[in-house]
From TrEMBL:
<dbReference type="InterPro" id="IPR010512">
    <property type="entry name" value="DUF1091"/>
</dbReference>
<dbReference type="Pfam" id="PF06477">
    <property type="entry name" value="DUF1091"/>
</dbReference>
<feature type="signal peptide">
    <location>
        <begin position="1"/>
        <end position="20"/>
    </location>
</feature>
<protein>
    <submittedName>
        <fullName>Uncharacterized protein</fullName>
    </submittedName>
</protein>
<keyword id="KW-0732">Signal</keyword>
Length: 215
């Protein structure tokens, strides 16, 4: 009898400890999502631009992926609104290091590479955002379009969902008119593609009709 009550006492006293331990573990497993702090990001003003950007389509490339599963990749064209990109990708692996690549092409006869290229390791970039104007610009666009994905590593072990569109205000003041293609790619350290997509867009200068009327 005495022994039993001692056991009960023992169980009762250890239970909160076990419970606390479980809570801590559950908390760790659920990997707290900490939004990236990036005070120097660009706040894009809604000023008018001498051009309009028209996205014709978003296309996922290099599919199927070996370390991830593309669940959805859809361009939704909308009347009087920019095309919407609706994408989801399941990434079962945990990512503590992964790379982000952006290459832009300008179409003359064929697509020629534009001298604006990003190749950065995301986890360390989030910890120490660089001052490089181009990566700062692209990251700032991502803060506006996919803010829920801008959290510190580890990444992966989740299904990412995003639905976004690109606005004129995200572009630099001087954009040459013409057709462009932007290739975006996320890859592992071992160069395995997690997600890759292309954005096809054209830039049209405005003011042609105005100048015709003026003259
Ligand atoms: C992956 O996520 C699940 C649920 O969010 C969690 O239980 C598991 O511990 C995570 N695995 C790793 C390796 O982080
Ligand atoms: C920018 O201006 C357009 C048109 O006036 C408006 O529809 C849009 O909501 C504005 N966006 C922001 C972020 O202020
Ligand atoms: C997946 O792996 C196969 C075989 O190693 C390779 O040929 C293919 O290029 C890989 N695909 C991607 C998207 O990395
Ligand atoms: C994106 O697609 C998913 C799955 O088809 C859908 O549930 C969701 O509503 C879509 N999001 C938008 C903004 O269209
Ligand atoms: C990495 O993969 C990409 C796409 O699969 C390929 O074009 C590139 O040549 C690869 N780079 C290296 C260094 O293997």
């Amino acid at each position: 009898m005495k022994l039993a009550s001692k056991n009960v006492l023992y169980s009762a006293s250890i239970l909160p400890v076990v419970a606390a331990h479980l809570i801590v573990e559950a908390y760790c497993d659920a990997k707290p999502i900490v939004p990236v702090h990036h005070p120097k990001r660009i706040k894009f003003a809604n000023e008018s631009k001498p051009f309009t950007v028209h996205v014709t389509k978003y296309v996922c490339t290099e599919t199927p992926y070996n370390e991830s599963e593309l669940l959805q990749c859809k361009t939704i064209l909308r009347r009087n609104k920019p095309a919407l990109f609706n994408i989801s990708v399941h990434v079962p692996i945990v990512l503590n290091t992964f790379f982000f690549e952006v290459k832009t092409y300008y179409r003359l006869n064929d697509y020629q590479q534009f001298p604006a290229e990003i190749h950065t390791e995301v986890c360390s970039y989030f910890r120490h955002p660089s001052e490089d104007i181009l990566s700062r610009h692209i990251m700032s666009v991502m803060f506006e379009t996919v803010p829920h994905l801008m959290y510190y590593c580890p990444h992966g072990n989740t299904t990412y969902h995003a639905a976004f569109w690109i606005e004129d205000r995200f572009f630099p003041k001087s954009m040459p008119a013409g057709d462009f293609r932007m290739d975006v790619r996320f890859r592992t350290v071992r160069n395995i593609t997690i997600l890759a997509y292309r954005i096809y867009f054209s830039v049209r200068r405005q003011g042609i009709w105005k100048s015709l009327i003026e003259w």
